[in-house]
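Page 42, continued from yesterday. The earlier attempt failed because a stray header line got pasted into the input along with the sequence. Redoing it now with the clean sequence only.
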Amino acid sequence: MKGILVWHRIGVLLVSSGLAVSVYAGEGLHTRDQALVEIKQYDRRIRLEPKSPVLYLQRGKLYFAVHDFSRAVEDFNRALKLNPKLDEAYFERGLALGRAGRIEEGIADLTEFIRRRPDSSVAFTKRGVRHIWRRDFTAAEQDLKQAVALDPANAEAHDDLGVVLARRGEVRRAAHHFSTCIRIDPTYQKAYHNLAMAHYLMGDNPRALAAVDAGLALRSEHKGSLMLKASILEAMGAGEAAAALRQQAEFLPEGNWSERLEVN
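This time it went through. C-alpha cells are written below.
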C-alpha cells in the first residue's frame, strides 16, 4: 500500500488506523517508555508462569502499543495455543496481523472473533476498516453498518462508514455520519477533517473552513488538514494565506500507510 491518498488534488480523506482501544489508556500508561517498562515486567512474570495465556495476551497488547507487531502476533499465538477459548486473543491478533500487512489473516481472526461474539460493534468496525484497506468497499459498508446498528454511539464506525459513502459519491450522507461522529466524540480529529472535505466537495467553503479549523484546534500540525485548509482558502479567494499554509505544511511528516485510503 502506498499510504497517500489523494481525492482529486485537494487532500486526503482519512480512515481509521484500526487501532484497538489504547493499551496506554487501558493500562494506565502514558508513554512508550512506560510501555517498555511494563513489557519487561511481563517478561519476568512469564518466566515464573510460562503457561499463563493471559500474561502472553497482556504482553502482546503492549507490543502492539509500541508497534512491534511481529512480537505481538507471537504472543497472541502462544496465548491461543495455551487456551484456544481465549476469544480476546483472536481479536488482538487480528488487529496485529492487519497492522503487520497480513490483512487477509487479520480479517480471518476478526471473523472468528465475530463468530464467537456476534454482538461486538468494535469487531465489526475493525473488520470493516480492514476491508477498506483491501478495497472491498461493499464488505466494508456491510460491516460498518452492522457496527452502527449494534452501537449507534460507535464514533469510529460512523466516521469510517462516512468514508465509504463519500467514496461512491454519497457525500451528503457521508457528512451526516462525520457530524454524528463528532457529536458522539468532539475530540475525534479525523472526523473534522473528513467533514471539512465533504463540505468542500459540496461547495460549502465556509462550513468546510469551520470544520477543518475545529480539527486543527485538536491537532495543529496535521499535514493533510493544513493542505485541505489551503485548498479551501484558495477556493474562497485567499490565495496568499493558502500559499503560506502550504509552505508551513510542506516539511511536516506524512501519516503512515495504515491511516489512509486511496480514493479515486
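Notes: The radius of gyration is 20 Å.
Reminder to self: strip header lines before submitting.
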